[in-house]
Amino acid sequence: MFGGGITNTGTEIGETGSVNFEQKLTAVNDYYHQQTERYNVNFNYKYENEKGTILNVDADYGSFKKRNSNLQSKIYTDRQETILSQNLYRSFNGIDIGLNAFKLDYTTGLFKGVLEAGAKYSGISSDNSARFFHVLQATDSLDDRRSNIFEFSEHIVSSYLNYKKPVGKWTLQGGIRLENTSSTGSLFFKTVNTDSTQQIKRKYLDIFPSFSISLKAATDHNFSFSYSRRIDRPAYQDLNPFIYLLDELSFWQGNPFLQPQYSNRLVLQYVYKSSTILGIGYTHTDRYSARITDTIQTIKIVMIPRNLGTQKNISFTLTQNFAPFKWWDITFNGTLYRLHNKIAFDQFRDLELKQMAGRMNLQQRFKLPHSLTAEVSGYFNSRRLSNANEISRAITQVDVGLQKIFLKGKCILRVAVSDIYKGGQFKSIQDYEGLYLTNYGYYESRLLKINFTYKFAESSVKGPRNRSSALENESNRIK
């Protein structure tokens, strides 16, 4: 990916409660060079015999590189737009992430059930550099206070065992996974023209049990109950402590002390004829992590990820498929949920937030003459609690598409328009002691998409089998 981008922000500065501001800060970030490269290589071997024994081996390597150059101007003006002062900065940032993994999975029959076992190793190394300059008339001057190098390495060794067996109308499943993690983060910086290093090392062992019970009560009625414990590790960039300025009063920053969050989840589900699915879920998350906006040095704000406390989530879900006519298919997905965040920004600011919210999606598919198919889908997300303490307004979105199949099924032409009326514009409010913040934004969700597919092979030829690579979890931690 190549290209540039520009952000323009304005900040009015004045006394709290005053209608008129005293100064205004205008900041323009010109990302005149941006480049992202991402590569993944996978080797897979699968052995399977007639007895149902399967051996699957995956070896993966991935590479992620990102570069950006930013020219940033900051201008302070009074109410008459007279320039009081102005500064010009230049920054160069680089990220290099290397990933490798090896995974072994084994499946066999045992006592009229299925036994699954496996092991995995994954390792990543991340090199990050940030150089910050004051742009002067004669030359650029390096700012050592904001220029740093951060290196991060992580190694995870895991193994799992899972057993599944039918017993009459019941199906029982139980499993356990062990993970041993070790990581090192090293920050290289200067203090008073002296080279300094700060290291953060971690090593921990986790156990993740899971089980499920399902009952086929009748031909069209199925019930299931499941429990699982999982871990969500931080994105690699969130561990990077560098400061990225939006302007002189607000900035983004990573957190090398960020820890994984752990969730325990219970799900009760009922399925009728594979067309109706009802579910009740409960999730309790410890070390709940989110990106928050906080004050610093009285007049500045920082956006930083932190472990804040606990989150409880109880949800009710419904999925319904039905066809009023042969040419009309409808799929409805709806979720009603309640969040309870019990968090603390520091020892003086405890927050307990509770919010009921809902979201739904309605997708309609119409079979038209001349091998045409039309789709209309709508999405609604109610007023809700987002991240740790943001209250976001409701949003809606409508997408439409048309598909044509020709040349005896070898060619498929699809045209689609997403978010046709720009309903994806978001707005949120944060209000707590010392800060009142309103956010508004809109991303490129209204798009015209044209896709053409031609099948060179006959339909009887098998495509690649669906499977997960050994680096799937690690790749998802790259932003």
- Number of strand segments: 25
Number of separate helices: 1
Q: How would you sum up the global shape?
A: globular
- Are there runs of 5+ residues with pLDDT below 50, and where? none
User: Structural class of the secondary structure composition?
Assistant: mainly beta
Order of helices and strands: EEEEEEEEEEEEEEEEEEEEEEEEEH
What is the beta-strand fraction?
Answer: over 45%
Give the termini distance in whole angstroms. 14 Å
Measured as a percent range, the helix fraction is under 10%
CA radius of gyration: 27 Å
Brief sketch in words of this structure:
The protein is mostly beta strands. It is built from 1 helix and 25 strands. Helices cover about 0% and strands about 75% of the residues.
Question: Mind explaining what this structure looks like?
Answer:
1% of the residues lie in helices and 75% in strands. By secondary structure, it is mostly beta strands. It has a domain at 321-479. The chain has a 21-stranded mixed beta sheet that branches. The chain is globular and about 80 Å long. The mean pLDDT is 90.
Break the fold down into its secondary structure elements and pairings.
Blueprint: E1 2-13, E2 23-48, E3 54-77, E4 83-110, E5 113-135, E6 140-142, E7 148-167, E8 170-191, E9 194-218, E10 221-232, E11 243-247, E12 250-253, E13 261-272, E14 276-296, E15 300-325, E16 328-346, E17 349-368, E18 372-381, E19 384-386, E20 390-392, E21 395-406, E22 411-418, E23 426-432, E24 435-441, E25 447-454, H1 472-475
